[in-house]
Amino acid sequence: MNDSIVIIPTYNEIENIESIIRSVLSQHKPFNVLIIDDNSPDHTADKVIQLQSEYSGRLFLEKRAKKSGLGTAYVHGFKWALERKYEYIFEMDADFSHNPNDLERLYNACHLGDADLAIGSRYVTGVNVVNWPLSRVLMSYFASVYVKLITGMKIHDATAGFVCYKRNVLEKINLDKIKFVGYAFQIEMKYRTFCKKFQIVEVPIIFTDRIKGQSKMSNSIIVEAVFGVISLRLKKLINTL
Prior knowledge:
single chain; 241 residues; alpha/beta; Spore Coat Polysaccharide Biosynthesis Protein SpsA, Chain A; 7-stranded mixed beta sheet; 8 helices
């Protein structure tokens, strides 16, 4: 059995799904893929089912009843992966903003290096973002600066969604307590990892904005992140995190 599973949440990703699956599964280091689809109206899940016969034992699908948020999709995937004894569990977007060729670099940071959590970081060596408007780059960059100030984490890209966890990290985090769904989910997972004294390493990547499909970003996700960070810090201070 492969030791690594790449979890990819989807909602209306029919334009990207076949290409991203083929790209991940064609890497030199073997990875398995778990798609968590939120009942996409564009039939993303049907395309995954078609591909499963070609990638038997390597491509898996969990189809949920409705759109329920990124955070709950990943928690669902984490529990699925832990039950099946994967040692390295990845988060990755379906839209090629995360380059599948970087998966092995994240894996090596955990498998060969000292990382318990490896982050594909857009900001650890400057600003490595392609095709984003300046306003969004600034919002994302200063969100991570804000997270540093509030939480004390020395992480340059706290909202990154391209990561690799060792299984023991996810085993030590109470996944049923994860509250947030968007950017704040990514921050919460990193903060809980940080609070458990695990080693976090940032691996520099180049992030490229999606070419096909529509972004899932919304104002509510931004608001959740801003106030969610304060909530996390307060919970830590009063010992309820």
